[in-house]
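Run log // design_07
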């Protein structure tokens, strides 16, 4: 936890440049509330300070990105919805402050309003912005969630910490879609987290093969960061893996009905993308999986799905497997006497 002042003029300029490039894609809300993000006192009148809080979420669970038959799901999304967990903790903190200091003006945020979370956290001294644009800390890496309390209390502000990325570019080099265009520069339109969560329509065809088996978010840039070797598993039970999402096969998840999806994903952040986009993402994953009767059968079962979005991505995936079979047959033919 740290305390930041409300002067964000420099961050407002950088945000304006990012929006000017169109790198926010379909996230119109980023442009709609652009100025408010950098002006806490305008978002919540009377705000003098921002209490920035970090909560670690890492769990001891399998990394499935390397197994093309399994679904790779971002670690933060494998348990309970972090919005509810972190918001509850922030409210308890406000109650404790009120018990000591008396009634005060405040508002709690958890990825729920135009708030520049990483910028505020860096100014509050609880970490620095890494080259992948996420918050990093020396003792916990980047496997953490952020929340804020905008308050009228004239608290003493903390000093920002220094950066410790040095010359390392592992996060930039590993990005499957080259979404990190340079240090601290993220083109969200190419980011797999954006493509599988924020994008409502079709995933651009040139990027589908690069998505691999990642069906909800992507942890690649965090997984290779040297600072994450210092991260420790969180004791918070709400972040524990649910529904076997750290070892589920693509075909198994693709077989879920809409009712099963709603029931199993109740209380999960994954539920917010809806069943249609869930199937879209899984269809891409299955299209990138090694060809097998089970994979092809799973895709054919959804070939006539009522959703045009799902049908489009299933057709793409089936075409990939048909091409793979033709290549195998062609190789066998050319090698025969």
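design_07 sequence
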């Amino acid at each position: 936890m740290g305390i930041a002042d409300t002067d964000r003029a420099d961050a407002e300029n950088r945000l304006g440049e990012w929006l000017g490039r169109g790198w926010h894609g379909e996230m119109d809300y980023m442009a709609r509330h652009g100025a408010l993000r950098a002006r806490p006192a305008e978002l919540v009148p009377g705000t003098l300070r921002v209490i920035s809080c970090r909560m670690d979420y890492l769990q001891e669970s399998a990394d499935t990105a390397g197994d093309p038959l399994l679904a790779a799901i971002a670690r933060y999304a494998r348990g309970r919805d972090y919005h509810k967990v972190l918001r509850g903790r922030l409210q308890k903190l406000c109650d404790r402050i009120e018990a000591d200091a008396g009634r005060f003006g405040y508002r709690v945020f958890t990825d729920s309003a135009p708030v520049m979370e990483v910028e505020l956290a860096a100014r509050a001294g609880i970490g620095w912005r890494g080259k992948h644009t996420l918050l990093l800390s020396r003792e916990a890496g980047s496997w953490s969630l952020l929340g804020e309390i905008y308050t009228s209390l004239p608290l003493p502000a903390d000093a920002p910490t220094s950066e410790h990325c040095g010359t390392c570019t592992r996060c930039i080099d590993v990005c499957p879609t080259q979404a990190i265009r340079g240090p601290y520069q993220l083109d969200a339109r190419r980011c797999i987290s954006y493509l599988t969560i924020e994008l409502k329509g079709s995933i651009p065809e040139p990027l589908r093969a690069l998505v691999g088996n990642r069906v909800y978010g992507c942890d690649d840039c965090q997984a290779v960061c040297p600072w994450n070797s210092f991260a420790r598993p969180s004791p918070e039970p709400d972040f524990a893996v649910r529904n076997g999402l750290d070892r589920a096969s693509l075909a198994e998840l693709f077989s879920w009905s809409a009712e099963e999806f709603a029931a199993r994903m109740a209380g999960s952040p994954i539920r917010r993308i809806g069943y249609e986009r869930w199937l879209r993402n899984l269809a891409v994953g299955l299209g990138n999986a090694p060809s097998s009767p089970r994979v092809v059968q799973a895709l054919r079962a959804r070939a006539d799905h009522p959703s045009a979005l799902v049908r489009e991505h299933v057709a793409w995936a089936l075409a990939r497997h048909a091409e793979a079979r033709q290549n195998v047959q062609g190789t066998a033919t050319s090698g025969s006497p």
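The chain has 15 helices and ten strands.
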